[in-house]
Amino acid sequence: MLDVQKIRNDFPILGREVNGHPLVYMDNAATTQKPRQVIQALVDYYENFNANVHRGVHTLSMEATDMYEDARKKVAKFINAGDPDTVIWTRNASESLNLVAYSWARENVESGENIVLTPMEHHSNLVPWQELTREKNAAIRYIPLDNEGVLDLSDIDSIIDDRTALVSVVHMSNALGTVNPIKKLCDLAHARGAKFLVDGAQSVPHMVVDVKEIDCDFMAFSGHKMMGPTGIGCLYAKKDVLEGMKPFLTGGEMVLEVSYEKASWADLPMKFEAGTPNIADAIALGVAVDYLEDIGMANIDEYERDLTGYALNKFIDVEEEGGKLFGPRNPDQRGGIISFDTPDIHPHDLGTLLDQMGIAVRTGHHCAMPLVRSLGVAATSRASFYVYNTKKEVDVLIEGILEAMRYFRDGVR
Amino acid sequence: MFDSQELYQEIVMDHNRRPRNFGSMTDSTATSEGFNPLCGDQITLFLKVSEDIVEDISFEGVGCAISKSSASMMTEGVKGKSVEEALTVFEAFREMITAKSDGSKDSEILGDLEILKGVAQYPTRIKCATLSWHTLQAALQGTERDISTE
Questions:
Q1: pLDDT tens track for A320-365
Q2: Which of A69, A154, A187, A286 has the smallest set of CB atoms within 10 Å of its CB?
Q3: Pairing relation of β-strands A164-170 and A114-117?
């Protein structure tokens, strides 16, 4: 069993007060807090090792390059990528997805083909495909949802077909919490000759994710949602796929040889990393991976599942007052994201009142506008957990929601 | 426990529960749509302007307490006024809500609307309060484009 108090002590921000109350941070699907080790890694790099990578023959440059490439190895091991060259640094999951859209899909998706998505995609795994299919005269197809927000695969054989070029699916929905059957969908895609992309932004930070086991062709995720800094993300892709792809951005770092007329491309992974990279944040992400591995991803998964089960049970109090939970009821089908609607009080007002109690939740459409609209609401409130959240904090959240609902309904607390 | 004194005062809560001039209008002379992509708030405003006077005004839509009460109070605040006077109220409201003034110098113009001055302390909520006003401005000036707060 993991020691939550010990973990919390590593996060300086969790000790602060907000509006006179201890901070209850439950906006982890948006971004997570950073442990001291990660913050210190940034300071340590800039104080002792700062240099540009891959080009200097001096000591600092060599040390910085080693640290930077070590971080890549750590991330590769973390997702079981095997070869570290299959991990490309990007700014975030959105950039990773755009990289696939520009460098792979533009060359490989043809007129009349289709790309299969789910209705619960984040805008970042939706808008690039809308742009691409418009340009290519291709189509987007959606795997339907049942009324609990779980994918309905009953008609999947006619959705993923021989004209499907790519199936791109979110592993864990940031708006519903639903965990999708990635392995099964990947097998279905491959059986039809389609490539398979996983948006792992919400899953990689919270559970054991093994790209070899899934057998996905691409996986995108962000560092800042897994205790790392903002501004660093990853694209994993199979090596033969990456080798067949054109560069995304061109310029320095990504070239082998340049004349005044033309250039040839560097080998992986640098072919996809034009310009001076985000060295410090990559190194700090490596430290975040160390931190997560130290706790153990299976332990994190188990802890959050238990916490989510506890929260779903507690949420019955809110439902008895008319609250509505979105996403599956079964904790085995979902991650630690509780998305809900409350009668009489708009999510924005709820978010403001909870903030006055020190509780940070997200309110709005969660960058999944079409999905939230399909739920019949303009916005939802969302509490999302990480391994440093506690059952006591869940109690504070539920009590806060009930208090705010009562205030809006009756004008009294 | 929370301190809601500045933001969710009784008048705001009352307009939220029972918005005034809420509903569509069949004989409007101008309509306008407003949308706040941040929170999904949406408002449709109906105006009946005759000889430069706002004879009638109503709104429909979904939104938080701040946007709904602001719209409701706005309809009460501009009904019967000339177009120019309505725009003056908007100007006074905008100054107050963006903390350029505390509203006291425009007390007479603002009336009940002064109650919303607490919103100025919540930068993320200012757009909730101004959505209906930008929508009104568009309707008054006869622009047909949809209004977005972004």
A1: 999 999 999 988 899 999 999 998 899 999 999 999 999 999 998 8
A2: A154
A3: parallel
Q: Do B40 and A345 touch (CB under 8 A)?
A: no
Contacts of A127 by beta carbon, 8 Å cutoff, 6+ apart: none
A300 CB contacts (<8 Å, ≥6 apart)?
A: A2, A206, A207, A292, A387
Domain spans of chain A, in order of start? 4-27+296-410, 49-294
Give the 3-state secondary structure percentages of chain A, helix then strand then coil, rounded to 5: 45, 15, 40
Q: What is the ipTM of this complex?
A: 0.85
Question: Mind listing the pLDDT tens digit for each residue in B58-97?
Answer: 999 989 999 999 999 999 999 999 999 999 999 999 999 9
The CATH number of the domain holding residue B14 is: 3.90.1010.10
CATH code: domain A49-294 is 3.40.640.10
Give the minimum alpha-carbon distance from A13 to chain B in angstroms, rounded to a whole number. 21
Is A364 in contact with B64 (Cβ distance < 8 A)? no
B49 falls within a domain: yes
CA distance B82 to B88: 10
* Shortest Cα distance, chain B CAs vs residue A223, angstroms: 24
Residue B27 lies in a domain: yes
Taking CB atoms and an 8 Å limit, are B64 and A404 in contact across chains?
A: no
Give the CATH architecture of domain A4-27+296-410: Alpha-Beta Complex (3.90)
B66 chain-A contacts, CB cut-off 8 A: 348-349
| Model pLDDT, residue A341 | 96
Q: How many domains does chain B have?
A: 1
Interior/surface letters B40-76, b for 16+ CB within 10 angstroms, e for the rest: bbbbbbbbbbeeeebebbbbbbebbbbbbbbbbbbbe
A407 interaction partners in chain B (CB closer than 8 Å): 4, 8
CB contact under 8 A, B2 and A404: yes
pLDDT at site A56: 83
